Amino acid sequence: MNYFSTRSGAPAVSSAQAIVAGLAPDGGLYLPERFPQVSLQQLQALVEMDYEGRAVEILSLFLTDFSRQELADAVAAAYSREKFAPPQVAPVVSLDDRTHVLELFHGPTCAFKDFALQLLPHLLTASLRKTGCDKTAVILVATSGDTGKAALEGFADVAGTKICVFYPDGGTSNMQRLQMTTQKGDNVDVLSVAGNFDNAQTGVKRIFTDRPLEEELAGKGFLLSSANSINWGRLAPQIVYYFSAYCELVKAGKISLGQRINICVPTGNFGNILAAYYAKHCGLPVGRLICASNQNNVLTDFLTTGVYDRNRAFYLTTSPSMDILISSNLERLLYLLCGRDWAKLKGYMDQLSSQGRYQVDAAILEQLQAEFAAGYADDTTTAQTIHQVWERNGYLCDTHTAVAMHVLEEYVKKTGDNTPALVSSTASPFKFADAVLPAAFGAQAKGDDFDRLAQLAEASGLAAPQELMGLKSLPERFTQVVPPDGMKQAVRAWLLENQ
Ligand SMILES: *Cc1c(COP(=O)(O)O)cnc(C)c1O
Asked: Are 164 and 491 within 8 A, CB to CB?
């Protein structure tokens, strides 16, 4: 399977090359040349397998330059019972005959990015070997919270890698900060930047484009790399869980093999829902893909009107991981809908960067609307939904999942489409206890973060995840604060002075 960039007809690369590069040299995103097909018979075989087995099968369709053994090793390291407690890894919980929740939050950071970031380090180190690179991959991440921790957990103590995460001083929640500063691992570093998230991100970008530094580090055996969400090595692992969820539904007798399901996804950067689109086009029986947004509803408008317009107010919501106005993975979908006409796609992307806006033509809008539905929920509706789902179904969902629950309900009301639906649940309710407590129980959050976890556990009768509760007793390992213009020096010192 070859990979092409969305922005030029540049020669194809292998999956290992695409994973090492992340972004294509022309600024585009890599995409496999076609959709590999999974027949119903193959799907039946997947039903009999465990998550790890399903992952190897699906990944081998896309990562054809990896041996099955390499994939099996990577998958075993990523999805062990130590990292994901449930035997199904991504369990499916049925709320009623029609509504099923895919729980993607049983990993080390209690949110769905673990699925990609637990596997990526192993795919990356294997890819480096395949491309003949013997350097240590140094991952630099600027984070406003969740991605940094998920990347730290994924890369910690993975041989052949080091990871350094920068977060804005005072710009994360206290719990997010603690998750990072208590991180274990001999190959990790966590630095607080005296500035905001943009300062941290700009600083990282500057390090990535510093040629003299790149050469100096290369001379010492280091290669800078990113764990960015546009890396194909982050998207591929997400396709797996949609296949797995379908298999779980068949296995539980909730659907019959070949029966179609709809999938509703709380969406920010468009990675998770794009993985569902890929699963569908590889042969998974899927009807509608329902794109759920919070008040930053740029995607709802786009899928309704064909106009993508980021020139609008930006809201900080109770579902912060979806507070995004530029959904970078949408580029991959548009490229496909342009019939892989990269020049046409590039026209839209150029308009997006110069005017913050583009309008797709009628043919593309028609294709979009044939497969996608869209809707959004503001914070008030999200809170009401958390309450309703708790009262009605005895199920506690986080704010992101609640956005999807609401949008699915509205979709069913509007269309009468009673196809069984899978809701992608992207975070544990405990991760957003401050918003979930008042919404579900009318209780005001009290005390420190750990008191709130205990409060939510008490009110719901659920156990607070050990991944969060356990932070209380861990020592903080990282306390250094650097100025934005001191980030490069800090990376140099960390890599070169402790050798
Ligand atoms: C990242 C994230 C999302 C958005 O997923 P995308 O792939 O960016 O669309 C939704 N919910 C949670 C909890 C997340 O962390």
From this structure: yes
Mutate to test the pocket of ligand 1, among 146, 176, 321 (most ligand atoms within 8 A of CB): 321
**Ligand 1: distance of its center to the CA of 269 in Å?**
7
Strands 99-103 and 92-94: antiparallel
CB 322 less than 6 A from any atom of ligand 1 = yes
Q: How many angstroms does the Cα of residue 325 sit away from the middle of ligand 1? A: 13
Model pLDDT for residues 9-56, shown as the tens digit of each residue: 888 999 999 999 998 989 899 999 999 999 999 999 999 999 999 999
Among 113, 149, 280, 346, the one annotated catalytic: 113
CB 400 less than 6 A from any atom of ligand 1: yes
Question: What's the rounded Cα separation, in Å, for the pair 204 and 110?
Answer: 26
Told to judge if 162 belongs to the known catalytic residues of this protein, a careful annotator would answer no
The pLDDT tens digits of the residues spanning 283-331 come to: 999 999 999 999 999 999 999 999 999 999 999 899 999 998 989 899 9
The span from the CA of 272 to the CA of 22, in Å, is 17
Q: Averaged over 429-436, what is the pLDDT?
A: 94
Q: Check whether 474 has a pLDDT greater than 90.
A: yes
Alpha carbon nearest to ligand 1 atom 2, residue? 321
Burial profile 125-138: b = 16 or more Cβ within 10 angstroms, e = fewer: bbbbebeeeeebbb
Flag whether pLDDT at 200 surpasses 80: yes
- Beta strand pairing status for 188-193 and 161-168? parallel
Kindly indicate the confidence band of residue 499, based on its pLDDT and cuts at 50, 70 and 90.
low
Token pair recorded at residue 325: 């106005």
